## 1
Amino acid sequence: MDQTIWNFIFIGITFGVYIGIAIWSRAGSTKEYYTASGGVSPFANGMATAADWMSAATFISMAGGIAAAGYGASKFLMGWTGGFVLLTTLMVPYLRKFGKATVPDFIGDRFYSNGARLVAVICAIFICMTYIMGQMRGVGIVFSRLFDIEIWMGVLIGGGIVFFYAGLGGMKGITYTQVAQYCVMVFSYTIPVIFISIIITGNAIPQLGLIGNYIKDGPETSVPLIVKINQISTDLGFSEYTASTSNTLDMFCITAALMIGTAGLPHVIVRFFTVKNVRAVRKSAYWTLGFIAIIYLTAPALGLFARTNFVEEINNKRYAEAPEWFKNWENQGMIAWVDKNKDGVMQYQAGQVFEGKPIYAQEASTDGSPRPVINPLSDSPNEVYYDRDIIVLANPEMAGLPKWVIALVMAGCVAAALSTAAGLLLVLSTSVSHDLMKKILKPDISDKQEIRYARMASFGALVVAAYFGINPPSSFVAKTVAFAFGLAASSFFPTLIMGIFSKKINKQGAIAGMICGIGFTLGYIVYFQFLTQSKDYWFGISPEGIGFLGMFINFAVAFIVSATTPPPPQEVQELVENIRIPQGAGKAINH
Amino acid sequence: MKNNNISKSGYWAESLRLVTQLLLIWFFVSFGCGILFKDYLDQFSLGGAPLGFWMAQQGSIICFVALLVVYSRWMNKLDQKYGFEEEETN
């Protein structure tokens, strides 16, 4: 059967399931729309949170990032899992006990101020907007590959589907769709890697690949895979795969910003509002991380396998004999080859082939000749350009796996992007309908009107997200996402922590802290990302890691301002005492 | 509900102590083993992989999951000790 038919079958079935679930579980009240009425089981919520959590960036880009950067990519692995330890021990049990529908709700009540609520709403919108752009881009890339259309068209299709079930179903619809999406993701991520693992290491458990032996050339030449990859890497002029990064401080800061950001991301926090009580939150938290770990322990193995495969299949091979996938992806604009020394052989080495992304002189070729690139070339002997995202997308083809596996991976990519986009969209829409309209601007609107505002807001948010998905401000999907973490780390995390663990922080402190934290972080990111080409970072901390510093600024400002202004009123101090005791969380309420 | 305030502050103090211990381990396995002492640990090897590298890519994640299971167990026990426990959910 043709690849396209397989793709249609897999994508069609999964979409049918998602839409079916959305219609079956569509929300009738704000309670169902915001928190699924607090009736989701911890196990199901764990799966849903894992799907919500693992974005297109994780699914498509992370393994590619690991393959390219080796040890340097550990910051993503640790950062995007370690944050759940912070989230669980410091944050969600208490917020669940508090029992309101959104994060700005807690901030507004704990800091007894609509001003604080408004700042929180703006932070939430900002974080989710930054994050959702990467998702839309991811959907666009996959659809363009699937149906041979332009990326912008793919972005629009994906946006339409997300709007359909997130806007309709609210949290209830999203939760059960995400459970289905997690299942699709975990199978589509691990199955190809299992096959590859058997070929490369002879072991069917891919997670053990890092400590496995390379046996592809026969058992008598078996060496530890890590030793093999270090050898290959240094032969081609790269640094060792396991080598430390040159800047430990930057590595530390980025890891910290990702972890803290994880714990401050509103779309992850609200997922825990859907379970019954605090005890269920704790249980749900370890299920969540367990489900995430299945994929996160596979990713480094996949990166390692893919790097080995890529070099062996490409380096020093004649272009005329290049595998089919190489030409397919060249036609997609994600691979380019420039025959610098005119020998007809592809040399893959360290260094950039040319500056930036390839600009092709002609449309996709059908006669098997390479697509010429018009970029000015660099001095590096490297001739092969590839977009990191193909490590996952093209991986089954590289390993020569059957066509249905490729279709499965595509379905998984789409599931990853859609599940995260839906979760973010929910936060965006509730921030507007609940926190902005109901709590600040128009307190007397009815339940029905509130949901209508939510649906309108999710449509508006999608339009903006789609625009940026088509014109991304930063090329590498994971990079766009990394900024959202910096912003969350410098705004929500410190403010929520202080709201729970200190009775002394007052509204002036919280507002000033949030504004300074996110202002500083945003300023730093915008300056270095958009306004200047300079890489003259403070202490060498790159924009991805600056949220860690932003967090300290938030803490410091909040403490200083709170010390010089009146303490919070008695009832707020009692509220803080109350949320520290798990008993009696009841169902999450809205009003 | 007698001695309610005393038991509340006792509960809070104990849960803080518990969380602190878990977070120290959290810091040690990730930032410690994976970043700060990575070069030192790399002299040991696990199935051919340098230990520091492996901790950063996989070991720390396994520890995180274990930490959350322990957290849930400990906190449920603490709830029971102070009479704050809630019904089991599945």
Note: Chain A has 22 helices and six strands.
## 2
Amino acid sequence: MRLDSGSTAWMLVSASMVLVMTPGLAFFYGGMTRAKSVLNMIMMSFGAMGVVGVVYVLWGYSASFGPDVAGIVGNPFEHFGLAGLLPGPGDPNGLAQTLYAGVPALVVVAFQATFAIITVALISGSIADRTKFSTWLVFCAVWVSLCYFPLAHMVWGGGLLSAAGPLGSWFTGVAPIDFAGGTVVHIDAGVAGLVLALIVGRRHGYRRDPMRPHNLPLVMLGAALLWFGWFGFNAGSAAGANGSAGLAWMNTTAATCAAMLGWLLVERIRDGHATSLGAASGVVAGLVAITPAAGALSPAGSLALGAVAGGVCAVAIGLKWRLGFDDSLDVVGVHLVGGLVGTIGIGFLASDTGLLFGHGAGQLAVQTVVALAAMAISGGVTTVIGLALRALMGWRVAADHEAEGVDVVVHGEAAYDFAPAAASGLVASLQARTGAGGPRPEMRRIEEVQA
Amino acid sequence: MKLVTAVIKPHMLADVRAALEAFGVTGMTVTEASGYGRQKGHTEVYRGAEYEIDLVPKVRLEIVLDDADAVDAVDVVVKAAATGRIGDGKVWVTPVDTLVRVRTVERDDRAV
């Protein structure tokens, strides 16, 4: 196989763009929390980058795309530490084991690693303001290994939910479609967010204390970064620099613009105001919905899908208030509902197989089964992991620490210098710790130490 | 000596300052404050959830003057801060026992 330098360049750019989505998500979520826990919110995303990045190099890629084991998971040992994927003698570009024509295997790994990272980070929004950082980091490693990698394998790695599985031969000419991750990323993370919100429990003062977003410009900045990075996510999922990438790019924009307008319209009618938070939320809802469908719809179909997704998600975020669970930043309302709209919407709107274009209900049936299967897998696996971690480590910081704010208590930092006069001096803890012999003295101010 | 305290709408501060300076007041202390009176606050909507924002932003002005000027200064502030709508604020006067200018240690009337 020859190196395709154009496609390789595009995939390297795409991988980098998808990676920047996770810091973008950190800002998007961070602005929506209260000022006392914005750093913790951002750190949950950065923590996911650290943990999942390490896991992906060790066994993540292999468990997702390694040799098939029973249609459920890839063999995690085959490419452990990315063994067998590196360039070598006679294969200077590392193309021997690649999944994308003409693109080095390690570039495929890079691109896929960024998907695993953001999927885990998405979940953090449902348990904002109250979670132990240590438990979260352990969850990242366990959940991505037991839930994300198997689902990625089943849908994209030739497993049970792919065209190679039983659904591929259910109807003639119809195969399950998940172009860039409606099931693997968004339904998966959305259900996990719901399960964790239930297991971790509500924030103290939920539905009583004001918990309004503390920094909407940060939310808008995050939404903008997500939108930009999402071009790598969707157009990169074409696996090369080609016409399919161009279609995915155009569909992504069409759906997202329509979704923003759809969300704002619902808000204007229901609440009386078209809000900036609504615009940012509508953008993300549209991006989520078009993710599985970006390669299968026409741009006009994408406009319809996006408009529906924006409107439906704007209504769906009210669900938590009625049902009483504290999905703090609406992972369910945006990612689960948006993922379902996109995944099932393919059955209606796909240019070649959709019901609305007179191609029968085969695609719709296949998409519905895949969506339900993804929900069941994520729901089951996340429940087991969530309950096990509650028993072993506990999910919550202490109630008084939650009231004081996770930032100061867990991370020892404050995001904003609201009261400069409050800081009264350096603590001589370094000298105290390194002083030879004797008990550690009481903490003193630096002037006393120097005197 | 009197302490004149005024709590007003933040966007009226520039007008009130200009009026006081025209009147001859040479200094003041301004603090950002929040509060409410009979007008209460307003509501905000985030993703469909409505919040009552009871405490609204205000600005607090404090000026120390001799007794005669204080009476007039109150009128100056009231005239400049009025928009005629609810939430315009309040002005009040309290007696001051002692006043010292830190730099010169001048006291009382000489420090006004």
Note: Chain A has a mean pLDDT of 94.
